[in-house]
Design a protein that fits this description.
two-stranded antiparallel ribbon; 2 domains; 5 helices; 149 residues; binds zinc ion; mainly alpha; 4 strands
């Protein structure tokens, strides 16, 4: 029979192969294999929560969930630091992920455009109030802005 290679240390498993999920490992490496598998699972849940947040960036619940899973993922990568090829995921990376998820969607969100129109109308009214543009210029520009809605 063929010997299997440990998925953690890469060594041949001569006696008592253990399985964590479908990954074989030697008994010595079992705790590490379980930790690595756990990290992968938490990472996957976190990425899924992040994708959901991206789809509805204004949802406080989804943000909370992504943050919570991100912290769990960060805690596990810290615990596993230096083992296997685990990259530390920290609070900064988490904050960046959350910001990116919300920013990308905000740019594509039509309500962002509405805010922009509101801002331009207000600015236009200011110019008129300060007598920097005439009443006629004001209504022309106002029509232009509103036609973008
Ligand atoms: Zn091993």
């Amino acid at each position: 029979m063929a010997f299997e290679a440990c998925s953690v240390c890469g060594g041949m498993i001569l006696f008592g192969a253990q399985f964590v999920g479908s990954e074989p490992c030697c008994p010595r490496c079992r705790p590490k294999a379980e930790l690595l598998r756990d990290i992968k699972q938490v990472e996957a849940s976190y990425k899924a929560a992040l994708a959901q947040l991206k789809a509805s960036p204004t949802s406080a619940d989804l943000r909370e969930r992504a943050l919570d899973l991100g912290r769990k993922y960060a805690a596990r990568t810290r615990a596993a630091a230096g083992q296997g090829n685990i990259t530390i995921f920290d609070e900064v990376a988490l904050a960046n992920d959350l910001q990116a998820a919300c920013a990308a969607a905000a740019a594509a969100n039509p309500s962002g455009n509405e805010n922009d129109i509101e801002r331009r109308l207000r600015r236009l009214a200011e110019l008129r109030d300060k007598k920097l543009i005439s009443e006629q210029e004001f209504s022309e520009r106002r029509q232009q802005i509103l036609s973008e809605l």
